[in-house]
Amino acid sequence: KAGVTQTPRYLIKTRGQQVTLSCSPISGHRSVSWYQQTPGQGLQFLFEYFSETQRNKGNFPGRFSGRQFSNSRSEMNVSTLELGDSALYLCASSLDYGVQGASPLHFGNGTRLTVT
Amino acid sequence: AQSVAQPEDQVNVAEGNPLTVKCTYSVSGNPYLFWYVQYPNRGLQFLLKYITGDNLVKGSYGFEAEFNKSQTSFHLKKPSALVSDSALYFCAVRDIGPGSARQLTFGSGTQLTVLP
Hints:
The complex is a heterodimer of chains A (116) and B (116). Helix content of chain A is 0%, strand content 52%. With 116 residues, chain A is mainly β. The termini of chain A are far apart. By secondary structure, chain B is mainly β.
C-alpha cells in the first residue's frame, strides 16, 4: 500500500507570495492532519479534516487554510508568506479522527518551505 | 488543555545498553498515548500506542513503553540499543475526555544518540 505522498518536496518562495501544498493520504484513510515543524517550536498542529470537513484547528492565523476533497486528498494554502513561515510542513492520514482517535497517524515526508 | 513534556532534549547511550526516553503528559480526561520516531529529512514513523488495557505496550523494532497513570508518564524503553536507533523521538497525546479538542499534541522531541 502506498504511503502518504506530499508534493512538492521543496519550495522556495518570496515574502508576500502565497503557496499551496498537496497531500495524498493512504488509500482508505479519510482523516488528514497538517503539522508545521520548526526547530524552535517543534510540531505545531495546523488543522484536521475528515470527510471534507475541518474538524479541528490549531492556533495559526487565518493566512493558513486548508481543504479536503471527496477523494480525501488535501491541500493547504498559506497566503502573504512571512519569513517565519519557513518550516517543514507535514501531512498525516489516519483511519479515524477525534473521538475515535485510536488509529495512529501515518506521516508523509513533508514539504520543506523556505521563505526569502 | 492537553500537553506533553519530554524533559530531555538529548539522550546518549552506548550500543547494547538499555535506553529510556521519558515522557509525561497532562490531560483532563483519559489519554491515548503514542510514540513516533523521525529520521533526518523524513516524516514521523509510528512506533507504538497505548489506548487501554495492559500498561506495558510493545511496538516496532523492539521498543516498548509503560503507561503509568499515577505518574502520568509514558516512557519509551528498549532493552538493548542499536546504533541504528539514533533518531528524534516524539511522544504524543490525544485527550479523549469530554469537551477536549481531541487533536494529537506532540512533545518537543528527544534526540537519541546510540554510541558504538
